[in-house]
Amino acid sequence: MGCSNSRSGEVDKPGSAPKAVALQKKPEFPAGCKSLLCKYLTDDVFNQLKNVQDKFGFSLAELINSGVVNPNSSIGVYAGSPDTYIAFAPLMDKIIEDYHGFKPADKHVSDWDASKCNFEALEDKYCISTRIRFARNLADFPLGTKISKTERKEVEKLAKEAFGKFEGEMAGQYHDLATMDKETQNQLIADHFLFKEGDKYLEAAGLNREWPDGRGIFINKAKTFLIWVNEEDQFRVISMQNGGDIKAVFTRLSNAHGTINKVAKFAYNDHIGAVATCPTNIGTGLRASIHVKLPLLSKDMATFEKIASDNHVQIRGIHGEHSESEGGIYDISNKRRIGFSEVQLVHDMYNGVKAMIEKEKELEHAHASH
Ligand code: ADP
Ligand code: DAR
Questions:
Q1: Domain assignment present for 261
Q2: By the 8 A CB rule, do 79 and 277 touch?
Q3: Which residues bind ATP per the record (predicted)?
């Protein structure tokens, strides 16, 4: 997906890219608001940034709108371009340091060497499925929050050209969401392959504009390698399979990363690594997760959450963010994204799930002896 600075010749219809507006006064947040936006948009930071625009004309109002409209946000901001992290550094650096513990002078370092995964597969008895993904955006475009309809179609076009070159295990087919029938879409979502739609946080950030135009999913023949196009990020590159063979899933993703990086010009900078729309996904942009069955441990949420916290993993439901667990199955994934390599974060997930399974076994023995 090599791309130039040029934009396609088509003139966008008015409204296809949000217009930058300058805020006259700092938005009010309700009492008890816990978002990092609320915490760090001080009067001083607001006055520093209220008239700033990044290189793509992205304004403070656009950067914070999701957190203003949704005061229950945990973060509250979505970037408009790779330059947002520089132009709005007085706010973004504070949010990044609070969430990731990553300081403005720190430099992210990557390591995709899957041979360093020195662990065995986790037991399929507990591990329903393993999924590892990374988020990426193209270097020469605004992010989904600011991109125009024409630019979004250009990103999709470049993606489809690259997908057509995939060979061997990676070979597959692109499915355009705009022409996908509802039954197929709902089945792909139910089968955990396709992204959901209508997220209110993404909506308020302008990420759902002209939906579903320019959105889609690439799926390889074995349904073990998928790429989301133009959802929250321009690309979510995903390796997944049933069971707990984390090393096999990471090896596939690492190989795909090597292949794709040869043809795509992704947005990186030497401070935050890969640029993402949400600051929680910068650095590696990697989330390694296992759907794991823990019916006994999940009855003791305090212990469950302590194991998660001690191992830098987070507990989610089985249909992605803001979803619930079903049948004692939970999505366990690395919380950290930056300041640690891809190999280290896969180890975080392994260590967390391994510790949870060991505890589940202890509880099984305790129940069996009663
Ligand atoms: P992301 O990891 O890209 O942020 P979500 O957490 O929103 O995506 O999950 C997107 C989809 O991937 C959801 O359908 C979710 O069920 C599925 N998913 C996540 N982890 C796994 C897993 N380990 N096994 C199977 N499906 C998974
Ligand atoms: N819901 C938004 C984003 C949190 C992180 N999840 C992402 N990026 N999908 C919030 O600020 O809570």
A1: yes
A2: yes
A3: 129-133, 192, 236, 287-291, 316-321
- Distance between Cα 73 and ligand 2 center (Å): 7
Give tens-digit pLDDT for 113-168.
999 998 999 999 999 999 999 999 999 999 999 999 999 999 999 999 999 999 99
Q: Do 91 and 149 sit in the same domain of this protein?
A: no
Give yes or no: residues 354 and 318 share one domain: yes
Contacts of 340 (CB under 8 A, 6+ apart): 283, 284, 348
Closest by CA position to 53, among listed 26, 17, 80, 90: 80
Is residue 192 part of an annotated ligand binding site? yes
Task: Tell me how far the alpha carbon of residue 362 lies from the centroid of ligand 2, in angstroms.
Answer: 35
CA 227 to each of CA 49, 135, 203, 219, 246: distance values in angstroms, whole numbers, following the listed order: 35, 10, 21, 7, 19
Tracing tokens 């022409």 back to the chain, one arrives at 179
Of 353, 337, 343, 307, which Cα lies nearest the Cα of 75? 337
User: Residue 335 in contact with residue 313, Cβ under 8 Å?
Assistant: yes
- Reported pTM: 0.93
Q: How many CB atoms lie within 10 A of CB 11?
A: 10
- Please check whether residue 22 lies inside any domain of the structure: no
Check whether residue 127 and residue 89 sit in a common domain.
no
Encoding tokens for residue 235?
A: 């690309």
